[in-house]
Amino acid sequence: MKKALRSQSKLFFAVMVGFCIFILAACSDDASSETDVHELDFSHFFPPTHFMEEEVKSFAAELEEKTDGRIKITSYPGAALAAPDEQFDAAATGSVDFALSVHGYTPGEFPLTSVMELPFMAETAVSGSKNLWTLMNEFEEFDAEYEGTVPLWLYTTDPGQLYTVDKPVKSIEDIKGMKIRSPSPETSEWLEALGATPVSMPMNENFEALERGVVDGTIAPWEAVKTWGLDEVINYATVGNFYSTTMFVVMNEEAFNKLSDEDQETIMELAGERMATKTGEIFDQFGGEAVEQAKEKGVEIYELSEAELAEWSEFINPTIENWINNVNEKGLPGQKVYDRAVELSGK
After folding, report:
1. Looking at residue 36, what is its pLDDT?
2. What is the Cβ-side half-sphere exposure of residue 71, based on CA atoms within 13 angstroms?
3. 3-class SS shares of the chain: helix, strand, coil, % to 5
4. Class of domain 37-157+246-284
5. Is the pLDDT at 340 greater than 50, yes or no?
């Protein structure tokens, strides 16, 4: 009898010891998750001298401070880790932790997001950025476009204009036959409707293409004239606020999920509409400065009148209807997203 009791006591003791070890291990795991340091990389295509590199570093510094050093980010500019058109996939597959690039560099991957690249959707980068972020949060169908990632913020550039090297463009007749660099399929469509030959290429190839005569002109925001040095090779600008380039900042989903709930919440508080608005403000600022710099360098600027824009719109606006139909055919709410985007723009 006593032997049996001793055996039971030993068994009870062993079970209790095991239970205590389990609890201690669990507590240890919870504690370590709160104190682990996550060293993460942030990949983008902008050159080290571009203001977006400073914004990335600023965001990283804020995040490190707010998480008491638990999240440390190293920025890799200049497409050092991935080409401009490979940034999103690099983040989605975990090749990089954070990525920033242009949606239009991967045609077809962001059908709903591309609504903000349609003609005449925003007059400033701030309004375009805030409207795009609102659309993504209002329509759950956007989620599929960012599979494998956590969107941190989306934004648009200041409105895009037409810049040319050898001759000014003041009418539709002037643009016919010209090779124009295009940033997106939507822009390529209406350029072709106007009689131009669109040439798709990322911004980091733009300067050399203009300088060597590979293209006769480019569609780009004013910001690019200053930050990418385009005013060194262009001589003419045609202002029509034709479109906005949209961009993303995303984080690999698995990397995000490895963070504590507290750190995840901190990231989203620092990102979101706050960074969308802040980024838009900077693009608008640099866009304004670029106009003055271009004038100082002798770039001839021609602003299309309302009557001229109405004439151009006859060729440009079919792109909008085509976009709606193509997106609807994919089973997505193209018409609803476009209508809401127009409503947000106040037009």
Report:
1. 87
2. 26
3. 55, 20, 25
4. alpha beta
5. yes
